[in-house]
Every structure is written in structure tokens, then in C-alpha cells.
Write a structure and sequence with these properties.
- The chain has 126 residues and is α+β, with helices and mostly antiparallel strands.
- Helix content is 25%, strand content 38%.
- The protein has 2 helices and 6 strands.
- The longest helix is centred in the first third of the chain and has 24 residues, at 2-25.
- It is rod-shaped and about 95 Å long.
- The relative contact order is 0.19.
């Protein structure tokens, strides 16, 4: 009995140590972190768009108007695609968002539906 215990105990110890060592070395699943607007804006790339249609609401007491636009967005290395955006635009900048004009934008390359104005004259409506 003691002879088998002398053989089994070291083998069991080595087996358990090997198991825990291999388990600690296996890759873990990466935690999925939520992506916020700030992250999307930081990784966005320059693009431009042609305004296909623009519908501006009334100017509020804060000096901004809600503008809904249909755009044809052009990003580097990809074909043009249609997009719909709603921005709050400063009263002085409403002339920049008329039908037929072109805009400078920033677009999230990982999710092309997130389109940001290139400047402080407009804000994205969430």
C-alpha cells in the first residue's frame, strides 16, 4: 500500500500542477467594452458629402436649428453611400447645409452610419 502511495502521490501532484499551469495560460475572452460617441469620433476619418436634400426646422432661442439631411458620403477607399443625419446647426451656418452643397465630415470607419460634422458649427443629434 505504501509503495503505491509513494508512486501515486507525486504523479497526482505533477498532474494537478500541470492542469493549473495550463489553465492559467489559456487565453481569456476579451471583455467587450461599450463604444461611446467620444471613441467613435476619435477614430473617425475625414470624408466629404454632397447634400441631396436638407430640411431645416425653426431656429430656437439658443440660435440653433434642427436640420435633417440626406447625404451621399464619400470616404477614402470606399464607394459613395447614402446616409441620413440630423444635426443641430448654428443660425449663421445654415447656408452651408443647403441642397447641392458639399460638406467636410468625419466618419467612423468601423460603423459608417456614425457621421460627424467637421467643425463646431454643428452638433450631432442622438
Amino acid at each position: 500500500m505504501s509503495e503505491t502511495l509513494v508512486i501515486l502521490l507525486p504523479m497526482l501532484t505533477i498532474g494537478l500542477l500541470t492542469f493549473f499551469f495550463l489553465r492559467s495560460r489559456r487565453p481569456r475572452k476579451a471583455k467587450k467594452t461599450p463604444v461611446d460617441d467620444r471613441t467613435r469620433l476619435e477614430r473617425s476619418v475625414w470624408a466629404w458629402a454632397k447634400i441631396l436634400s436638407a430640411e431645416a426646422g425653426t431656429v430656437s432661442s439658443l440660435g440653433v436649428a434642427r436640420v435633417e439631411m440626406q447625404l451621399e458620403v464619400h470616404t477614402p477607399g470606399t464607394p459613395a453611400y447614402p446616409a441620413k443625419v440630423t444635426w443641430l446647426v448654428d443660425r449663421e451656418s445654415l447656408e452651408f447645409v443647403e441642397q447641392g452643397k458639399e460638406l467636410s465630415l468625419k466618419v467612423d470607419p468601423q460603423d459608417l452610419k456614425y457621421i460627424y460634422p467637421n467643425g463646431s458649427w454643428a452638433k450631432v443629434v442622438n
